[in-house]
Every structure is written in structure tokens, then in C-alpha cells.
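pinning this so it doesn't scroll away 📌
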Amino acid sequence: MHFQDFDIDNEEKKQTEIKELKQKKLPITEKGISSFKKKYKKFGVIYLSKIPPFMKPVKIRQLFQQYGKIGRVFLVPESKQSRKNRTKKGGNRKRNYEEGWVEFYDKKIAKRVAESLNNTPIGGPRRAYFRDDIWCIKYLPKFKWNDIHAQDHMEKIEHKNILQQEISQAKKEDEMFLKNIERSRKQKKRIENENQNKFENEFENQNQNQNQNQNQNQNQNQKKKRIKRKKDQEIDEEEFLKNIVGIK
């Protein structure tokens, strides 16, 4: 897909200037650095929020360089876990990419590319693999290539902070869980001890009552025996006296 409003002659002139600039080696001097910074300020970056399935960086470069001179291309590959889950379900084993950035030597062209191609089919020959896929492109004003790495660094720091917070939260939850288990164990032990003490007290009271009953029974038996012995003794004395009187 080509732009209808592009000035072809102007584009060819710019491409020639860029090619000559690339071939010409500037000395590493303050003037050279200043010249590079001046050229670098004209660079523009577009952001691809969605990469067509299995499209490679080489294909990205091939598709975009027809609109203007491009520099670096960077695509973020899918995570290992995502690829593992996809291939496990029988998906394509080719590498897939999730998002990407393309650097143009002219930010005006980068802006036009984003505005013209966003939400449009990639197009191409009838049997082209990516013909029906839709571009999702955004021009990033005042955004330079180094900002990608800075953004990536900030995301890593943010991810690290989130991870540390999650780890800290997990530790707190584990500590609370262990405390609850320990509290439950102590409570269970206390209840068991109370029940044991209660059982022992009841058993002891029962033994005491049994002992008291036994003592009472023994005392009653002894008393009955004494009474019986006394009666027997009285009977014997009475019989003895009768015998003496009878003899006389």
C-alpha cells in the first residue's frame, strides 16, 4: 500500500542524502556529535501494538521501507510460557511477537505512515500470508529509540517492585497462616488438657465416693459383727449361769 500524497522526487532526494550521510564517516568531534544530534532529532518512531501472527522483523522492515528510510526494528517476542501453552494445544511452533517499534529517519514520514496505515489491511497479492491482517500503528511524538530501553528499564523496575510486594504479601499471609495454625494447636491442646483434668477430677471424686461407701460399709459390717459378738457373749453367759444353777 503506497501513499498518494507523497512527493516522489522529494523522497528520492532525501534517500540520496541519507545514503551519502551514511557512507560519509564523520570524525568523533564536538562538531560531528552536534551534527549527529541534529540529524537524530529528525528521527521518528512508530509503535506496533499488535504484530500479525508469526510476522518476523525482516518482513516488518520489508513492508515499511517502501515508505521511507528506516533504521532499527525491534519486536518483543512472546513469553516462554505463552509459547509453551500455545504449542501444547497444538499451535504453530514458529516464534510469535507481541509488539514492536520501527525507527524512521524522518519523523514526518513516520507520522504519515501511522496515520495512513493504522486500522487498515496489510494488503498485497491475493495469496499473501498477511494480506488480511490489520495494522495497529501509533506514531510516538517526541519519542526516541533510547526511550524504548528506558521504558523497558522502568517496566522491569516496576515489575520488580510489584514482585517484591507480592512476595512480601505472600510472606505475611504465610506468617498469619502459621500463627493461626499455632493458635489453633494451642487451643486444641488447652481444651484437651481441660478435658483431661476434668476427667481426672471426676475419676478421683468417683474413687473418693467409692472409698467412702466402702468405709461406711466396712464400719457397718464391723458394727454388726460387734453387736453379734456381744449378743453371742451374753447368750453364752446366760447358758453358763443356767448350767451352774442346774448343778446345784
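📌 and the second one:
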Amino acid sequence: MISLNTALIILVFLFFIKSMVGVATTENPLEQAESDPLVIEGKFTPKTLARYNGIDNPRIFIAVKKRVFDVTQGATFYGPGGPYENFAGRDASRGLALNSFELSCLTSIDEPIDTLTGLTKEELESLDSWEQHFDNKYKVVGTLHENNADSSEVVPPPQPQSKKDA
């Protein structure tokens, strides 16, 4: 007769194997985005950046001090339902400097890029710390430019191909 401990070990082992197989076969947009080729560096406007919000596109980009980061791997924070979801597809600089996640800290995508005027020295230092955090954790995929930039200068990165197109 199998002891209770042996039976529990077997059950845990089977659960582990089943969960590993499930991970390998799961198809969800976030996993697909993470496995797609990395986006090459591009130039974004606030309007083109807004497409990368985790809803319209599985990738999630955030601008900090006019540098655009791919934060897709942090979707639990920056994606839909996450605590920083307001920053997805947007210039998050002022909100990060103020440690505020309120929509009022975000400039409309139809307005000029926030020049960060009015921030204190401490708030700018906080923003620098956030920028360093993003530098250490995420890939820079482009730079942020005004909406009225010459269209020949603004190059959104190519969309990742779906696996069925490849």
C-alpha cells in the first residue's frame, strides 16, 4: 500500500508536470507579444504612442522624458487593470515625477508634449530615478516627438507579425 506521503508527492509531481505543459501550450496575446521579435527603435508622436496601450495592441509602451520604453513584460503593472494602467501608451513623465497615477497628470495626446515646467527640484530628481529604473529594466524602443513633426521624420515601429503570417 502506498503511504500518504508518497501519494502526496506523486500528486504534487503530476500537478507540476501538468502546469508546465499548460504553460507551453497557452495562447494569449501578452505571451505572443513577448515572443514576437523585438520592435526596432522608432520615432513616436503622442498619437502613435497611444496605440501601444495593451488593449489596441498587445505591446505596452510608456514614454519617460521623451524616451519610449517597451514595458510589455510588466503588463501586470502597466496593462489593463494594473495600478499604472493610465500610463500605458502615454508620456508618463509628469505622473512619475509627482508619484501620481491620476489622469490629470497626463497631457492629452492632442496637445504638445509636456515640458515638465513647474516641477520642483525634488520632483525632477524623482523623475530621474524613475527613468533610471526603466533604463535598468526595460528596452528603449524609440523617442517621443511632437504630433506636428514632419511625417517623414516620424516612423512608428513595424507591427510584429502574427505567427500565422510568419
